[in-house]
Amino acid sequence: MTATKLTGAFAHVIHSPHGGVEGLLLDVGDGVTQVVLDKDDEKNAALISTLKSGQQLVLSTDDIPPSRKGPGAHPVRALRKLISVRGHMGEPQGGEVISEHRFRALVDDRL
Predict the structure, then answer these.
(1) Cβ neighbours of residue 85 under 8 Å, at least 6 residues apart?
(2) Which domains does the chain have, with CATH numbers?
């Protein structure tokens, strides 16, 4: 897999049909890129659910093989690592407010 660094503005969370966090949509300037999570990546799913629209993100992503359904409306990549977030964190569904400092600590714990 080829790793690619993406920088852009968080647009919104992408939810699975069952309501879980499946990924995010990132505005990369010349369009949007869908970034998907591994189905067992609960830690990143919880962190992504705290983001606010417009926050600047830097992500490390991997290529994903093309869909059998054909080309999509936008590129799709797999999240390898959430490198950084600018701005304040939002409020997750559980009500806990996560500061940017705490967010970075959680990300660092995964390295």
Answers:
(1) 51, 55, 56, 57, 100, 103, 104
(2) 3-109 (2.40.50.140)
